Amino acid sequence: MMKQISKLVVLLTLFFALTLSVSPVYAADETYDKLKIMVDVMELINEHYVDGKDTPDMAVGAIKGVVGTLDPYSQYMEEKAYKDMKSETEGSFSGIGIQIAAKNGYVTVVSPIPDSPAYNAGILPGDKIYKINSKSAVNMTVEEAVSLMKGKFGTRVTVTMLRDGAPEPIDFVLRRDKIKIISVRSALLDNGIAYVRLSEFNAQSARDIEQALDDLSKQGQIKGIILDLRNNPGGLVDSAIAIISMFVKDKTVTLTTRGRHKKILQEYYTTGSAKYGQEPMIVLVNRGSASASEIVSGSLQDFKRALILGANTFGKGSVQTILPLSDGTALRLTIAKYYLPSGRPIVRGEGPNDRNGITPDIEFKLSIEDEIRLYVDSNKVFMDPQKNKIEIISKAQADKERADKAGIEISTGAVAVTTAAVTVAKIETIKIEDDVLKRAIDITNGGRVKEYISSSKALDADKLAAEEERKQEAENAKKLKEEEKAVKEKSNKLEVDKIDKTMPKK
After folding, report:
1. Is 471 left (phi over 0), alpha (psi -120 to 50) or beta?
2. In this predicted structure, what is the pLDDT of residue 86?
3. Among candidates 74, 205, 229, which has minimal Cα distance to 143?
4. What is the pLDDT of residues 249-281, one digit of tens each?
5. What DSSP letter does each residue of 432-446 carry, written as one string?
6. The pLDDT of residue 470 is above 70
7. 161 CB contacts (<8 Å, ≥6 apart)?
8. Does residue 353 come out as left (phi exceeding 0), alpha (psi in the -120 to 50 range) or beta?
9. Could you tell me the pTM of the whole model?
């Protein structure tokens, strides 16, 4: 018993030494007092708890509890979870294809991976995992959820989701599959607009985007670029910097990481000749755009190089590192935060009305039904242009066409069915309902990208929020210094009192 407790005390002491931001004297007093209480509690549980409890389990629970007070991305991984995490990075697993993060007691979908089982079933960003195979997922860790959802290729898993606006939980029965990610897809839209969708940031993403733009330029002059980062959960930071470098001049600071220690501070610079640095550019984002997607969209917004359209992004602007521990477990710890060229961080608010991530220059709010429809139609834009004419339309136009069609069918009855069948056979135009992409195309065709960038107030709002955060940090630092000063004065007074008591009285 005491051996296990001693191990826990050592681990937690090291943890507090790394994470506490107060003075060493004050931290030591507070930390060891709390650790003593923790040891007392564990001893009382071990001696008196009605059902008994294994000390190692209590130790693991205590460590997880401590790490759980930090942020959604810092996690203590037991040995199996750590091995599973390593196997995922090596690609040796089958799953359902979702990027997830912990938020407010729920494992929440950041983004489904395009063409994955989850994507094809209609799982959306923001869906909260309620059950996995009937097991409650409330307060479940990300690692636990991952271990339950992945498995043998071809086997089934039932994931129950809570969705905003849905009257009851939704069951998705999914067949596990090898997750194949096509990182870059592209198409040349009407009037020479290059449309490029990036699904994740990997080592080849920048090269693939450049190749896609080169190939599209051979089909005709590129008069504008639309980069679609919707539902892109992120990936490699170096890939994000390389992509920014295609559109921004060489040797420009585009990202800074700041941690608690100066040695963690790192600046990322653009490299190369900004091959596509002149074309009007629009970036599409939504609540499923996270991490590296926010670095690219936020940096291009800061440089006023691109107009940002869509919805506020997810808000993951932190750097994690994996710290292996001696017993085969590991600690994933947030060690720094990302700061964009303007100095603003990428933050995620916890309140229901807080704004997250990057605020778009032109904001769109889509209903759940519209998002589902967009998911179903999104890949049609890449259909063979030799066989199909692609037309991007707005929701209003689509609603009108649906209403007109319904009206004809009602008035003409059975005859309309025959006529419709003949008409469908002749249709060569594929219509895709996408308000955000349609607006991006209209702005580009109208030659108004720079005008909208100049008049946008979104960046000003984010800068104001960043300034408020800096003021709060400065206030906290001032308060901390005052506390440290008070502790030192109290310590000095105790020393003086102690000396006075030991002095012989005359």
Report:
1. alpha
2. 67
3. 74
4. 989 999 999 887 656 679 999 998 899 999 999
5. EE-HHHHHHHHHHHT
6. no
7. 109, 123, 127, 128, 129, 130, 169, 170, 172
8. alpha
9. 0.72
Q: Are 248 and 279 in contact (CB under 8 A)?
A: no
- Kindly list the structural domains of the chain, giving each domain's residue range(s) and its CATH number in brackets, ordered by start: 2-69 (no CATH), 94-175 (2.30.42.10), 181-473 (3.90.226.10)
How much is the pLDDT for 368? 72
Q: Is 496 exposed, middle or buried (CB count within 10 Å of its CB: 0-12, 13-18, 19+)?
A: exposed
302 annotated active-site: yes
* Cα–Cα dist 73/103, whole Å: 10
Would you call 454 a catalytic residue per the annotation? no
Reading the block at residue 442, the tokens are 């209209």
CA–CA distances in Å: residue 368 to residues 164, 199, 298, 372, 403 = 8, 21, 25, 6, 20
DSSP state of 353: T
Active-site residue, from 127, 177, 302, 462: 302
Beta-bridged to residue 392, according to DSSP, are 432
Per annotation, catalytic residue among 291, 293, 318, 378: 291
Give the list of residues 6+ apart from residue 317 with CB closer than 8 angstroms, or none.
Answer: 291, 294, 337, 338, 345, 346, 347, 348, 357
Looking at residue 73, what DSSP letter applies? T
Cα distance from N-terminal residue to C-terminal residue, the chain? 53
Mean pLDDT to the nearest integer, 278-286: 96
From 131, 316, 395, 438, the catalytic residue = 316
DSSP output for 457-485: -HHHHHHHHHHHHHHHHHHHHHHHHHHHH
Helix axes 2-19, 24-48, angle to 10 degrees: 150
Are 58 and 140 in contact by the 8 Å Cβ rule? The answer is no
Residue 291 is a catalytic residue:
yes
Strands 98-103 and 75-77: unpaired
* Count of beta carbons in the 10 Å neighbourhood of residue 260: 11
Can you say how many angstroms the Cα of residue 296 is from the centroid of all Cα atoms in its chain? 13
Name the nearest CA neighbour of 298 among 268, 341, 264, 241.
341
